[in-house]
Fold:
Amino acid sequence: MAFIPFRFDAGQYCEIPMENTQTITRGQALDDSDDDGLFAAATNTSNFVPYVAMENITTSSAGQLIKAIRTFGVQFLADTTNDTAATDVNLTADLTDSNTVDNAASAQDVFYIERLVGAAADRKVIGTFLSFKATA
Structure:
């Protein structure tokens, strides 16, 4: 499924520059892991996710603009890697990939789980991306 804006998304839509040859689908988490100002699909090592893609596209040049949504303050409906449990609520989690929250890992702590959606086996949560990563 990917990340779907759930609430507080008004005024958060924009266009952002992408890395070359990126195949992106709507709802994918995006980051700038190499700090060059161009975005790509987030990974399990991403520690900051400022945008989520809002269109399906394959980029053909560096800097090509795509539609996205800023993650700051926006709640998202998200899939999880594992069945959900009440103990997941109010915890931070990593990403499994650019489409899924890893609710069993917390090394990067990029997604805050606010509540569960449906049965545990549905593997769905509502939460927010953290706006920064604290470093020691």
